[in-house]
């Protein structure tokens, strides 16, 4: 049977909506004008719903399993995922906060996802057991805010080929140099995953990729002020500058050059894939909210002695929004079904999902502004904010153009 929201999902969804009504919505203006940082609300949500402890418990169970496997012990498969759920159900539970928060404040979801998602997952995927135990629990509990630093001023879509940040061996440690930009949580992060190239004298494109974990107050690391942006104002974005930052090998994920470079670009590529599926959940929340307020407005706004929803052009807009909502939900549900069947989405599938859903969100948000007319252009009606926030879905985590090339390459196969 295809995936559907069940009673447990709906109960959690309703609890999240109550949280948004009580805690998030009253602070939307402060978040959008950057008078308020997103982290207090993120932490309150984690405290109210026990999210931090739940995530730590799941991570610890996986870590213990990996330790036993490394020791050669036989592992009995107990089946199920979180609280005995299937993998699809467990992922759905983790996606619900993204969907519900994105109805009102997608920037908060971005800040949260980069911290407990990208940053923690990078450490889990490449770090030793000791490194995971050192950094992961505090990030998952939001005791510390994480940042994942890969983008540079000259390396956007060509993240690895144009990367110029370096790590040079110095005794039993390393010296790091370079600049990162467009780093979510960069201005405030306590723990930073820093991705760079080994300065070994080889051709730039052939140099191994290394990943380090840095504290926000590491000597030699400075940060710029948060950027002014078109949207996602509730998600602080900034620059990082590293000048002769000296770190020990314990800061290198894997702790040795050989282990750190195993898989090379593969770890970061997997992180990109997970990020792209996360965008689908955000897209669904934004589309659902734009559709909800547009239907309400079309029922109540009257022109020419008729409600505007009776005009065919308005009906056409609403119908297109509903189609986009259904398609986005179906893409998300398909990913849950695949996980339940034990199949992870391929990189091309994740790219195709993000490509469609990001474009659909942008279209729906702009249509919502148009449907509201002059009111839609006013900040009071919130569709103005969602339209600004939606644009970056087509840019971060890989631009639409990069997603298109990934999908096309998977169809064409290698050049023989």
Structural features, described:
With 416 residues, this protein is of the alpha+beta class. The chain has three domains: 7-144, Butyryl-Coa Dehydrogenase, subunit A, domain 1; 147-260, Beta Barrel (Butyryl-CoA Dehydrogenase, subunit A, domain 2); 266-412, Butyryl-CoA Dehydrogenase, subunit A, domain 3 (Up-down Bundle). Helix content is 52%, strand content 13%. It has helices at residues 7-24, 28-32, 39-49, 51-70, 87-102, 106-126, 129-140, 257-260, 266-300, 312-340, 347-372, 383-390, 400-412, and strands at residues 146-149, 166-170, 173-184, 191-198, 209-215, 221-223, 237-248, 302-303, 306-307. Strands 1, 2, 3, 4, 5, 6 and 7 form a seven-stranded mixed sheet that branches. A two-stranded antiparallel ribbon has the order 8-9. Strand 2 (166-170) and strand 3 (173-184) form a beta hairpin. The protein is globular, with a radius of gyration of 22 Å. The two termini are 41 Å apart. 41% of the residues are buried.
* Radius of gyration over C-alpha positions, nearest whole angstrom: 22 Å
How is the biggest beta sheet arranged?
Answer: 7 strands, mixed
> Which CATH class of the largest domain is shown?
Mainly Alpha
Poorly predicted runs are: none
Helix content: 40-55%
End-to-end separation in angstroms reads 41 Å
Q: How many separate helices?
A: 13
Shape: globular
């Amino acid at each position: 049977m295809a995936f559907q929201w069940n009673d447990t999902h709906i109960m959690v969804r309703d609890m999240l909506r109550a949280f948004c009504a009580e805690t998030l919505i009253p602070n939307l203006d402060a978040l959008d004008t950057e008078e308020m940082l997103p982290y207090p609300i993120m932490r309150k949500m984690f405290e109210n719903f026990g999210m931090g402890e739940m995530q730590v418990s799941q991570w610890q169970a996986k870590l213990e399993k990996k330790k036993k496997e490394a020791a050669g012990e036989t592992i009995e498969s107990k089946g199920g995922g979180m609280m005995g759920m299937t993998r699809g159900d467990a992922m759905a539970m983790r996606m619900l906060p993204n969907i519900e928060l994105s109805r009102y404040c997608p920037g908060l979801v971005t800040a949260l996802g980069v911290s407990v998602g990208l940053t923690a997952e990078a450490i889990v995927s490449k770090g030793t057991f000791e490194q995971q135990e050192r950094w992961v629990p505090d990030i998952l509990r939001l005791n510390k805010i994480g940042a994942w630093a890969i983008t540079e001023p000259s390396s956007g879509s060509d993240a690895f080929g144009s990367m110029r940040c370096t790590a040079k061996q110095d005794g039993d440690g390393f010296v790091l140099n370079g600049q990162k930009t467009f780093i979510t949580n960069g201005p405030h992060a306590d723990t930073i995953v820093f991705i760079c190239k080994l300065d070994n004298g080889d051709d730039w494109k052939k140099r191994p990729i290394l990943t380090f974990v840095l504290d926000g107050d590491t000597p030699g690391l400075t940060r710029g002020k948060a950027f002014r942006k078109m949207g996602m104002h509730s998600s602080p974005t900034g620059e990082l500058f590293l000048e002769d930052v000296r770190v020990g090998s314990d800061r290198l994920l894997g702790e040795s050059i050989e282990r750190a470079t195993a898989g090379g670009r593969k770890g970061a590529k997997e992180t990109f894939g997970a990020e792209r599926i996360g965008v689908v959940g955000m897209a669904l929340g934004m589309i659902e909210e734009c559709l909800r307020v547009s239907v309400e407005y079309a029922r109540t706004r009257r022109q020419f002695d008729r409600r505007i929803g009776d005009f065919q052009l308005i009906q056409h807009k609403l119908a297109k929004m509903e189609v986009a909502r259904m398609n986005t939900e179906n893409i998300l549900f398909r990913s849950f079904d695949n996980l339940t069947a034990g199949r992870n989405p391929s990189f091309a599938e994740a790219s195709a999902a993000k490509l469609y859903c990001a474009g659909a969100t942008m279209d729906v948000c702009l249509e919502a502004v148009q449907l509201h007319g002059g009111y839609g252009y006013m900040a009071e009606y919130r569709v103005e904010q969602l339209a600004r926030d939606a644009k970056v879905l087509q840019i971060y985590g890989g631009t639409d153009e990069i997603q298109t090339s990934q999908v096309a390459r998977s169809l064409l196969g290698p050049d023989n």
